[in-house]
Write a structure and sequence with these properties.
mainly alpha
């Protein structure tokens, strides 16, 4: 089973119609965007934490 067929197999239950190659492209594009944003937010949070001076006790 190639990657496109696997994606269709994994996602078909969430659709009322048969998924197409265009649907697969859109799913992959959306997932890539989602995880790219999560990675960016993580980097930004880590960068911000580096700039906060440690609390003195």
């Amino acid at each position: 089973m190639d990657a496109a067929q696997q994606i269709i197999s994994d996602w078909q239950e969430y659709s009322d119609r048969s998924l197409t190659d265009e649907d697969v492209r859109e799913i992959v594009e959306n997932l890539d965007g989602y995880f790219s944003i999560l990675a960016r937010w993580k980097r930004e949070r880590e960068d911000a934490e580096k700039k906060i001076p440690p609390e003195s006790h």
